[in-house]
Structure formats: structure tokens, C-alpha cells
Write a structure and sequence with these properties.
The complex is a heterotrimer of chains A (185), B (276) and C (357). Chain A is an alpha/beta fold and 185 residues long. Chain A has 6 helices and 7 strands. Chain A has helices at 15-28, 75-81, 114-120, 127-138, 144-154, 163-176; strands spanning 2-10, 32-37, 47-55, 67-72, 85-93, 108-111, 178-181. Chain A has a 7-stranded mixed β-sheet with strand order 2-3-1-4-5-6-7, sandwiched between helices. In chain A, strand 4 (67-72), helix 2 and strand 5 (85-93) form a beta-alpha-beta unit. Chain A is globular. Chain B is an alpha/beta fold and 276 residues long. Chain B has a single domain (27-275), classed as Rossmann fold (3-Layer(aba) Sandwich). Chain B is 40% helix and 16% strand. In chain B, helix 2 crosses helix 9 (199-217) and helix 5 packs across helix 6. Chain C folds into 2 domains: 4-239, 3-Layer(aba) Sandwich (Rossmann fold); 243-352, Rossmann fold, CATH 3.40.50. Chain C has a 7-stranded mixed β-sheet with strand order 3-2-4-5-7-6-13, with helices on both faces. In chain C, helix 4 runs parallel beside helix 5 (83-98). The longest helix of chain C is centred in the middle third of the chain and has 21 residues, at 219-239. Chain C is globular. Classes of the chains: A alpha/beta (185), B alpha/beta (276), C alpha/beta (357). Chains B and C meet through strand 1, strand 2, helix 4 and helix 6 of B and helix 4, helix 5 and strand 9 of C.
């Protein structure tokens, strides 16, 4: 089993840390993992993205151009990465600020309106965890219990009091994600 | 009567007796012929340093750093562990030595080209960090080893092979007063400017260097001793002429004396003045 | 003691591995994409834990000369930087090689020349394996291809450095430096307090003083010294060649790639084989000494060799030297901080060795 994922959005949306928690969760689940950020000034104010590969085998190239799953959090990233999803793959996106919605028919499209939900629940800090909750619902390559373990491992001790809030967000994400389109592939 | 017989001195063996000893070569000085030109100040500075290492019992614990320049071969003359550093980098090299072996006595020995030109950055930053080392800076206003080129410390109007018409400050810049600069840095503890061209100055230099070594034992920070010196070959003068020229021309730009005296030293002086 | 499992960036792995390997000192100047090494060490504050000194120097030049000073004391010292900073260190590296001092230098390389880009590249190969600074010398060059190897090569690097009294370079790149992977960390090793007999540690009770220098004004002496250095490099060449093979046994076409490119090429081998092309990969782990003998052997069996590097073709020269004219040797690489993709390599394999199925 190998799942090749791109997470992309604005810097500050928690893209890199979502990837990190995802990676840590996979480690907890005894999987191989690589986390490869696009680094540098691109991050500051602009777009941020990270490639996460989760696999039951040794990972060869951590740098790839085609993905099984794309998690997209802004319009630029949707424009950039929609064409990079493998036929039959999965696109998860937050509809907030999206004016041109996904167009490909050969992929499955899911929508998780995490920004709106985070605003409503007054928990904007765990916006990315709502998205991650959505991901693990539709691509159950990692289990919720391991995500909680991954959180414990990746968050500094002083933030451990926030884990219940994160868990709540993850579960909310699982609830609100919904299918927009089934792959015609 | 036997007692009235005059004692006859028969030769050298009679003279070389401990009770006749007026001067001895420090054990820390290796019996190698110095590569310095006649009349050069380096030999005297080496001697002072060697004597202090011996007198303070530091030979087993000393690590020196030699520069690139006339004193590159310092390790031929001092019987202590020495590292020869790249041009200008001695303070960086000494920084690591002292940090990794904090109970050793660590010094750098550098000329003006090494310390004040290519090594300006290393000098200023080591001093600014307050590295607990002694920097000995021999300033003769010229690049001696490479044949008498202009140094950053060459004084206005002074001739050198690359300022044959005299240093023109409008195009060649001004003489750089490194010692004044490092005295302004918070990391330096004791900063002084001395010379070794007369016995009295030799004594003063030795006294200053002794203090610097003692401060290092007390972890006080960087001590910096400039020694304004001559370069008879580079200046194209006899040793005596060069010393006179130095007094008349160098000292006005580089006046001798302490530039930064530790508070503890000032108190000590105050007390001894009061007792007087 | 059991190894500890962590998820870390390559840069962080180097930093933690340095502490655990019992390093005595780390001296460096920040530069992207490797500043995490210094940041991690400053936060970890190993001086409290092991007594390891960590110092942010005023320049790359000062940092490498601090390494010279520490190495001259026989201490386990290291520095790290990225390409433009490694260029600045070259004078000091030459001095370290010339004074035969052990130390570890890490290059988390980026694209050049000049200020270039901060994205990963492998265009420092020549600089790393052919000298870099002035004079006839070599570094031992290790090329990690994973975060695990970033950690493991710190200890290996120190071991080789002290075994041969020679500087060791870890040649990595921004991709491996920035990437996070699983890494098993070794338990903390005690820092050595031994005073090495050649090092400047203060004369102590020794008969002779120790001198660290690369200067010999006597041409005969300098030539003798150079012969001695060359003999050492020959010994290293004999003993320390390391490489990894991936599906080479039945390969018709051989890819040669190190570091990040080797990770890419591993996937290319899979894809190529799915397309019916029997490809294999040889990954040099040591770039100096280079696995020339093994490449020559494989060169006698395959129909073509493709050297894949994130450069305009540097290592390919060593591959050619190894195989002679027996088999076509070609280069493929992207530049400017672009990482080759596995598919591109397969396409090149098809195009270059047309008819190769």
C-alpha cells in the first residue's frame, strides 16, 4: 500500500503541520513515511505545500509530480494541483474562497468546508484538523487513534492540553466531509 | 701566605657560574636561530612571552596560535603546543581551542596585516564575544614578510613598496586603529598599547602581558596587547634609526598606554595610591 | 540500549546525531536550506547535556577556522553549510587537509553558481570530490540518500575522519535536509576525554611540543608530505568504498545516481521494469572513494549507463573514467534546483538508448 498525497494552501493555514501530524500518525501505525515541503520564500505569505507519502514499503522518491490524493485549501493550489492527481485519484478541497471548482471527471471529489466550520465553532486554530478529519474519513490509510498518538508525539508537551480540542475537530471533519463527485475512471 | 694570593680567572668556565648569571635564555625558548631581521622587535616579544610562560608555570598548559606573516614560524621558537592558523583567522582558531579546553592558556600572536586587514572580522568578533584569550598584536605598519607592502596600519605619508610615494589617505584610506576599536567592545577586558624598543618599555610590556595572562586565569574575557614595533628591513633603516623613526612618527598615531583598564585594576591602583 | 524512533528532518537528524555521537563542538553560520542544524542545536543546548560546544560564528570562514582549532586539539568538531557557504570554507578545508586534521563538514547543497537558488542541487560534486580548495588533497565524501543516513553518517564520518586524520564531507542537498522521515537514533555516546598524542592540548609531560601546521618551506619536505597524503588516499580508496545496488543483477541498463537522485532513480527502475526495460541502479554512498571497480564490472555486462545527477553532468566523468569506452555512458539531469522525476529518467532511458527494450 502506498498513498501519495499533496497538501497545498496559503502559508499560515497549517498545511505543513497537517502533513507532519499525518506523517507522525503513519509512523505510529508502523508505516514508512516521507514529508517533503516546498521550502523557502515561497512559504512566506504565498502558497505552501507539502508532499506526504505513506507506504507499507520503503519509499523510493520523496519527490513526485502525480498524487493519489490532493488536499487543497485555496484557489491557486487547486489550479496548480488539480491536473497532477492520478486518474481515479481523490481531490479534497475546502470551498472557502473557491470561485472555479474542480472540473476533472476522472477523479473523486470531496468537499470539506473546514474554514466555515472552524468559524462557526470558534476554533480557527484547529482548522487544519477538521480537514485532516475529512481526509481520514475518505482515505482511511491512517486511523483516528493513531492521529491522536501522532498529535501527542508532534506537539510540544505544553500544548497537550489542546489535544481534546483537536480530537473534536478531527471528528467534526469526518462528519462534514461530503462527496461531490464519484470518479468516472 | 695562601690567603693573599690573587684569584686568577683563567677562562670562560670560570665566568659561567650560577652566581655570575645576569641573564638566561628561558627554557620555553627553543635554541633555534631566529629568522627575524637584526633589530626586529619580534625576538624581544617572543622572549617576554616565553619568560612569562616559564615564570607562571604554564608551559604544560599553553596552546598558542601563530599567524601568517613574519611570525608564522613562532612554533620554531616557543617550546609549547602551537597551531599555525590561516591568514587572519587566529582569533577564530583560538576561540575553539579555548572553548574546548577552557583550562589552558591560549594566545594568538599576530601582525598588523594578519590582524588588521584580512582578519579584521575574526578579531572584532572574537573580542566582541569576549573570548577568554590573549591577543598579541605586533604592529610595525607594514607587511614585513612579503617585502614591505602597505598595511592597514601604515601611517599617512609613510612609504612602502605599494605606496612608494607615501600613503595618500585620499586614495589609500587612513591608518586603522584596531586597538582603539577593540577597546570600545564590551567583550574586551584589558586593552593596552606598548612597545619593546627600550629596556623600560620591555619591562612595561612584560608587566602588561603578565596581567593579561592572570586575567585569563580568572576568565575575565579578551585581553588585547598591541606592541608598536619597527621593521628595519621594510622601512629601509638601521635598527637604531628605525626605533628613532618609530618614536617620532609612529607614536603620535599610536600613542603608548592603556586603552581599557579593568575596574579591579583601577581599584588596586587607587588603594596603592592611598597607601602612599 | 534500544534505538529511539523519531520523525525528523534530515537537518535535525544530523544535529541530534552529532550530540549522540559525542561531538565536542559545532561551529557554523546560518544559510538556507540547512539552518535547522544550528537552530536545533541551539535549542537542544547540548552543552548542558554532554558538554558539546555550539557556536554561531560571524562567518563561514570563521566557522571553518574554529573547526581547524578544535580539530587541532583532537576534538570531534564539525561545521555545516550550503553551497555558497561551502565555497567560503574552502581555504580552511585545504588547511585542515594539509594539517591532516579530522573533522566533519556537512554540505546541504543548493543550486548555483553564485547565490543561485535555495532549492536542492548536486552541482557541488566536482568541488567535493576533486579538491575544492588549493593543493592536492581529497576529502572522504559521504552521500546520504535518506534522513536515516543523515544521522548514521555523522558517526561514520567522525570514525573515518579520526581513522585517517582526514576531513570528511557529508554531501547532501536541500531535499534531504528539509525532508522528514523515520529515523532510528542511536543512544547517547559518552564524549571522549582522551588527549590524543598528536594534538595540541598543552605540552603536558610530553617530551616534544605538538605543532599543527600545513607549512613546509622545504620543497623536498613538501613533496614527501604530498607522497604521504597520496598514499593515505590510496589506502582510503582500498578500504572505504561504499555503494548500494538495486536490481543490478539482470540489468541491461544501469543508472548511476547518488543522494536524492538515487531515490528518484530507484522509482525509475521500478517504472522502467514495468515498461519492460531491465534497468538497475548503482548508488555510490562514498563519492570519494568512488566505486569505480564495481561500475567497471557492471559496465562489462550492461548495454548502456545513464548517470543521473541534479547538475549538468559532473559525476558522469568519473563513471566514464571507470568504464572506459566499453559501453555508452550518458548523462541526464535537471539544474537550477529542479529535482528530476522518476518518469523523466525513464523517458531519457528510452530516448538515449533507443532500441533499448
Amino acid at each position: 500500500m502506498t498513498e501519495e498525497i499533496i497538501i497545498a494552501g496559503f502559508g499560515g493555514q497549517g498545511v505543513l503541520s497537517m502533513g507532519k501530524i499525518m506523517a507522525y500518525s503513519a509512523v505510529m501505525q508502523n508505516m514508512e513515511v516521507s514529508w517533503m515541503p516546498a521550502y523557502g520564500p515561497e512559504m512566506r505569505g504565498g502558497t505552501a505545500n507539502v508532499t506526504v507519502i505513506i507506504s507499507s514499503e520503503r519509499i523510493s522518491s520523496p519527490i513526485i509530480r502525480h498524487f493519489d490524493t490532493a488536499i487543497i485549501l485555496n484557489q491557486q493550489s487547486l489550479d496548480k494541483f488539480e491536473p497532477s492527481i492520478k486518474p481515479g485519484g481523490v481531490l479534497i478541497y475546502d470551498g472557502n474562497g473557491i470561485t472555479r471548482h474542480p472540473e476533472r471527471k476522472d477523479i473523486s471529489v470531496y468537499r470539506v468546508d473546514a474554514a466555515e466550520e472552524a468559524g462557526r465553532m470558534n476554533m480557527s486554530k484547529v482548522f487544519n484538523m477538521i480537514v485532516l478529519g475529512g481526509f481520514i474519513k475518505v482515505r482511511p490509510v491512517i486511523k483516528l487513534e493513531y492521529v491522536i498518538q501522532g498529535l501527542k508525539k508532534s506537539l510540544p508537551e505544553r500544548y497537550h492540553s489542546l489535544i481534546p480540542l483537536n480530537e473534536k475537530a478531527l471528528i467534526r471533519g469526518e462528519e462534514i466531509i461530503h462527496e461531490v463527485q464519484k470518479s468516472k475512471n | 701566605m695562601e690567603g693573599n694570593k690573587m684569584k686568577v680567572v683563567t677562562g670562560l668556565k670560570e665566568i659561567i657560574k650560577p652566581e655570575n648569571l645576569a641573564y638566561h635564555r628561558s627554557e620555553v625558548l627553543v635554541d633555534n636561530t631566529l629568522s627575524y631581521c637584526p633589530g626586529c622587535g619580534h625576538g624581544t616579544v617572543h622572549r617576554i612571552l616565553a619568560e612569562l610562560i616559564e615564570e607562571l608555570g604554564l608551559q604544560e598548559k599553553t596552546i598558542g596560535v601563530s599567524p601568517v606573516g613574519c611570525s608564522v614560524l613562532l612554533y620554531h621558537y616557543l617550546d609549547v603546543d602551537i597551531q599555525q592558523a590561516a591568514h587572519g583567522r587566529a582569533p577564530a582558531v583560538a576561540t575553539a581551542i579555548k572553548r574546548l579546553l577552557p583550562d589552558r592558556f591560549v594566545f594568538t600572536y599576530q601582525g598588523d596585516g594578519d590582524l588588521a586587514a584580512i582578519g579584521t572580522s575574526e578579531t572584532i568578533h572574537a573580542c566582541n564575544r569576549g573570548e577568554n584569550i590573549l591577543i598579541i598584536f605586533v604592529n610595525n605598519g607594514i607587511y614585513g614578510m612579503t617585502g614591505g607592502q602597505m598595511a592597514p596600519t601604515t601611517i599617512p605619508g609613510m612609504k612602502s613598496s605599494t605606496s612608494p610615494l607615501g600613503r595618500d589617505v585620499r586614495t589609500m584610506g587612513n591608518h586603522l586603529k584596531m586597538t582603539d576599536i577593540v577597546a570600545t567592545l564590551d567583550g574586551t577586558y584589558f586593552v593596552t598599547r606598548q612597545s619593546v624598543h627600550t629596556p623600560a618599555n620591555v619591562r612595561r610590556t612584560k608587566k602588561a602581558m603578565r596581567k593579561a595572562i592572570e586575567y585569563q586565569k580568572l576568565n575575565r574575557g579578551t585581553c588585547f596587547i598591541e606592541i608598536v614595533s619597527n621593521c628595519p628591513s621594510g622601512w629601509k633603516m638601521t635598527p637604531v634609526e628605525s626605533n628613532k623613526w618609530m618614536e617620532a612618527n609612529m607614536f603620535p598615531y599610536y600613542p603608548l598606554g592603556d586603552l581599557k583598564v579593568p575596574a579591579e585594576e583601577k581599584e588596586k591602583q587607587q588603594k596603592s595610591n592611598n597607601n602612599d | 540500549m534500544e534505538k529511539e524512533l523519531r520523525l525528523m528532518k534530515g537537518n535535525e537528524a544530523i544535529a541530534e546525531a552529532a550530540i549522540r555521537a559525542g561531538a565536542d563542538g559545532y561551529f557554523s553560520y546560518p544559510i538556507t536550506p540547512q539552518s535547522e542544524i544550528l537552530e536545533y542545536l541551539m535549542e537542544a543546548n547540548p552543552f548542558e547535556r554532554t558538554g558539546m560546544v555550539v557556536l554561531q560564528a560571524e562567518s563561514e570562514i570563521a566557522a571553518i577556522n574554529m573547526v581547524y582549532g578544535g580539530a587541532g586539539c583532537g576534538k570531534k568538531v564539525m561545521t555545516s553549510s550550503s553551497s555558497p557557504g561551502i565555497s567560503l570554507k574552502q581555504e580552511g578545508i585545504s588547511y585542515i587537509a594539509g594539517a591532516e586534521l579530522p573533522c566533519l563538514i556537512v554540505n546541504v547543497a543548493r543550486g548555483g553558481p553564485g547565490l543561485g537558488t535555495i532549492q536542492p542541487a548536486q552541482s557541488d560534486y566536482f568541488q567535493s570530490v576533486k579538491g575544492g580548495g588549493h593543493g592536492d588533497y581529497h576529502l572522504i565524501v559521504l552521500a546520504p540518500a535518506s534522513v536515516q543516513e543523515m544521522a548514521d553518517f555523522v558517526e561514520l564520518g567522525f570514525d573515518l575522519a579520526f581513522k585517517y586524520r582526514n576531513p570528511v564531507l557529508i554531501l547532501s542537498d536541500g531535499a534531504i535536509g528539509q525532508m522528514m522521515e523515520k529515523v532510528y537514533l542511536k543512544p547517547q555516546k559518552q564524549r571522549s576525554t582522551e588527549l590524543l598524542e598528536w594534538a595540541t592540548t598543552g605540552k603536558g609531560k610530553r617530551e616534544e611540543r605538538n605543532i599543527i601546521t600545513s607549512l613546509d618551506l622545504d620543497p623536498d619536505g613538501q613533496e614527501d608530505f604530498n607522497h604521504r597524503l597520496q598514499a593515505k588516499y590510496a589506502e582510503i580508496q582500498k578500504n572505504e568504498v561504499r555503494y548500494e545496488e538495486f536490481q543490478c543483477d539482470d540489468a541491461d541498463y544501469l543508472l548511476v545516481a547518488y543522494g536524492t537522485s538515487a531515490r528518484v532513480c530507484q522509482k525509475s527502475v521500478q517504472i522502467a521494469r514495468e515498461h519492460g526495460i531491465k534497468a538497475g541502479l548503482l548508488r555510490p554512498i562514498t563519492l570519494f572513494p568512488f566505486p569505480s571497480v564495481r561500475i567497471k564490472e557492471l559496465g562489462e555486462r550492461v548495454k548502456g549507463i545513464l548517470s543521473v545527477e541534479m547538475s549538468c553532468g559532473q559525476m558522469v566523468e568519473d563513471v566514464m573514467l571507470a568504464v572506459g569506452c566499453k559501453v555508452p555512458v550518458k548523462h541526464f539531469g535537471r539544474m537550477g534546483g529542479i529535482v528530476t522525476t522518476p518518469d523523466e529518467v525513464v523517458e531519457q532511458l528510452k530516448t538515449i538508448f533507443s532500441g533499448g527494450k
